TrEMBL record:
Pfam family, one: DUF3857
Residues covered by the DUF3857 domain: 88-212
Origin organism lineage: Bacteria, Pseudomonadati, Bacteroidota, Cytophagia, Cytophagales
Signal peptide, first to last residue: none
Name recorded for this polypeptide: DUF3857 domain-containing protein
Length: 675
């Protein structure tokens, strides 16, 4: 697209896709509440007198105002350009925030003039309260340093003057970006690592440009306004109508990396853009927005993806070997999967396409996830199995937005195979997953299946496996010596087994025993025995060891002791009082603890606690806890089961309370007395 040529028509359609927001309608609605219109270089006394952020009293600083204002203009040398005005006003609340007065603005400065960016119009001020007077210090122009930081980038740097705890700093600048360099505005974030009292984004889009705008996040819009306006970008042929948008989020809390989320990009309140089309006089409208069918065809046609699936000669020897060994499709699947798991090592790269070719990676026995799993699909097809690749976005990469078809949404490849009525998802990058079990970093919503023929489709990325752990303790309490001795038998299944195998399977028992002793510092551990390291991946890893633990609370006349000595829930992972984001556990949870403690003759529990049963709504989770005594044996049974993996923000308090009750029960000591 040549954005440097004049003559665009005056037609535009703006698509707005809104998700997650509690306020999602972009229809000209305007919040009829008090507006905020600050003036650059001037500050109010209340801002200087403030000592804490009302959104978060622990914050080191707070954005009093951050604003972005984007408009389009025409430059005779660069053609159409985007002009973005930035304005940030920050209250410094703690000494740790003083480094925010050091600002670096990096921009593209490549060899082609039509694609060069520029940053200009820098203005900056520091406001302080001195002797009960407002003192404003302006940044001198000579204090701004423009440096060449790489072959294609420059950086303008400056330090705001006279900054100290309690000050308010603010700076303003304009960035010019040619559309020949980048045809979409940068994403605007209404939320960041500091609380923000007022975050505002404005944009005026001429009618000859068509953008998809996506609103994301979980904070409501305080102002949500659009109106038709006259647009003059500085070139007569471009004159016409346009749409002006204004979005404001008020009193936004700082984004914190809470437990049970994918990646921060999925939760931050933001707005982003995708160019859909541009219209040029005398030419057909040129569309840039894709459909999922087009993404499917692109992947099938490019050499680094679909082309790799058509190069299979290097796999025919192993194909023949598997065919001579197995006759049933299920057995062929298992042998092919096991072969790729053992033959190739993952190099940690998570791209969609093969860099140097799956054949080369196969020969070197090492490659990317794409190399390994495209080779797996090819081998399964050679075995006449119905196999296809699935492209997806990992948890750290963010969710796929099904309303916006983009190849860039994906960063990983796995395999899908159908045998009879059974469907399996496969990822051979891990040596310890079995057919149908995906690594946890892959469990992220949906993936796109790219078939050999026909139309692609989205499929859920889920697993029937959970984080499964069973601890069985047989112990004897000796109050005279102040020790507890016994044996622990731990079985790790599902994702607990996968984690253990990935970390310890290539190590000696001494490595695991050393880590075990670090977690149980007061224990002496002996006779460690580990079974089923990887002989049968469907079965649990079994760990047994003897222990002796000193306990200063043990006394001959009577004592307290905590009966949950391993696998205890020591803290609630959900700490926040409120949460606006959903919970994504990725997998279910299954923790069981069974213990038998033998007491000396004549000792009994002073009181047997009542059995506890706690349920999450809709049978999403269950916790049971029971203490019994038979003769001189104390029996303990604790079971935690969570079968649902996604919870809404409205369900947060139920889950938090559920976990809290587990922690409370596991922390309660038992009182043992001598008759």
């Amino acid at each position: 697209m040549n954005f440097c040529s004049p003559g665009f028509t005056t037609r535009c359609s703006v698509w707005v896709i809104a998700f997650f927001f509690t306020t999602i309608c972009v229809s000209g609605a305007y919040a009829q509440e008090k507006d905020f219109k600050p003036k650059l270089g001037y500050i109010d006394r209340a801002s200087l007198e403030a000592t804490a952020a009302k959104e978060d009293s622990s914050a080191e600083a707070v954005y009093l105002y951050d604003s972005g204002n984007l408009r389009f203009s025409y430059d005779e040398r660069k053609g159409l350009v985007m002009l973005m005005d930035y304005w940030f006003r920050i209250k410094i609340l703690k000494e740790s925030a003083l480094d925010r007065a050091s600002v670096a603005l990096t921009y593209y400065d490549g060899p082609d003039l039509s694609k060069k960016e520029s940053v200009y119009g820098i203005k900056a001020y520091t406001h302080n309260l001195e002797d009960n007077r407002i003192v404003t210090t302006e940044l001198e122009k000579r204090a701004v340093k423009d440096e060449k930081t790489s072959s294609d980038y420059r950086t303008q740097k400056f330090n705001l003057p006279n900054v100290k705890k309690g000050a308010v700093i603010e700076y303003f600048y304009t960035r010019e970006t040619p559309l020949a360099l980048k045809n979409e505005p940068d994403m605007w974030k209404f939320q960041g690592d500091l609380p923000s009292q007022w975050s505002e984004y404005r944009i005026v889009i001429p009618y000859f440009l068509e953008y998809k705008m996506t609103l994301g996040g979980y904070l409501p819009l305080f102002i949500n306004k659009q109106e038709v306006v006259d647009v003059n970008v500085g070139y007569e042929a471009y004159k016409g109508r346009g749409i002006s948008y204004r979005f404001v989020v008020k009193d936004a809390p700082a984004f914190t990396d809470e437990p049970f989320i994918t990646t921060s990009a999925d939760y931050l309140s933001r707005i982003r853009f995708e160019l859909a089309s541009v219209s040029i006089p005398g030419q057909a409208q040129r569309r840039f927005s894709q459909t999922w069918d087009q993404v499917d065809r692109t992947l099938d046609q490019v050499a680094w993806f679909g082309g790799e699936l058509r190069k299979t000669s290097y796999l025919r020897e192993v194909r023949d070997r598997i065919n001579s060994t197995a006759k049933e499709p299920e057995e062929k699947l298992k042998l092919a999967y096991a072969h790729l798991q053992k033959h190739m090592k993952w190099d940690g790269y998570s791209g969609v396409g093969s860099r140097d070719g799956a054949k080369k990676a196969y020969e070197y026995k090492k490659g990317s996830a794409s190399d390994i799993n495209l080779a797996l699909v090819s081998l399964l097809r050679e075995l006449d199995l119905d196999a296809n690749p699935v492209v997806l976005s990992t948890r750290s990469h963010g969710r796929i937005i099904e309303e916006i078809p983009m190849l860039e949404s994906f960063n990983y490849v796995i395999a899908h195979v159908k045998v009879g009525e059974n469907e399996y998802l496969l990822d051979a990058t891990s040596s310890y997953t079995r057919p149908g079990m995906l690594p946890e970093h892959v469990l992220n919503g949906k993936g796109r299946l790219i078939p050999k023929k026909g139309t692609g489709r989205f499929i859920p990325l889920t697993s029937k496996d959970s984080k499964s752990k069973l601890d069985i303790v047989d112990a004897e309490i000796n109050p005279e010596d102040g020790v507890i001795t016994g044996r622990v038998n731990t079985s790790l299944g599902g994702y607990e087994a996968l984690f253990w195998r990935g970390k310890y399977n290539s190590e000696t028992d001494d490595v695991y025993q050393s880590d075990l002793k670090k977690s149980l510092e007061q224990w002496q551990i002996s006779n460690l025995a580990i079974k089923n390291r990887d002989e049968e991946l469907k079965a649990a890893v079994n760990i047994k060891y003897d222990f002796e633990a000193e306990d200063d609370n043990l006394h001959p006349g009577g004592f307290y002791f905590n009966p949950v000595i391993v696998g205890r829930w020591g803290a609630n992972p959900l700490r926040a009082q409120e949460r606006i984001y959903p919970l994504d556990l990725a997998t279910g949870i299954s923790n069981t603890y069974i213990a038998n403690f033998k007491l000396p003759d004549g000792y009994v529990l002073e009181e047997i606690p009542k059995a506890e049963v706690i349920l999450l709504p809709e049978k999403a989770g269950r916790f049971t806890y029971q203490i019994r005594q038979e003769d001189n044996i104390i029996q303990v049974n604790s079971s935690v089961s969570v079968t649902k993996t996604s919870f809404t923000a409205e369900e947060y308090h139920d889950v938090k309370e559920f976990f809290e009750r587990i922690v409370q029960q596991h922390a309660k000591p038992l009182r043992v007395i001598k008759k």
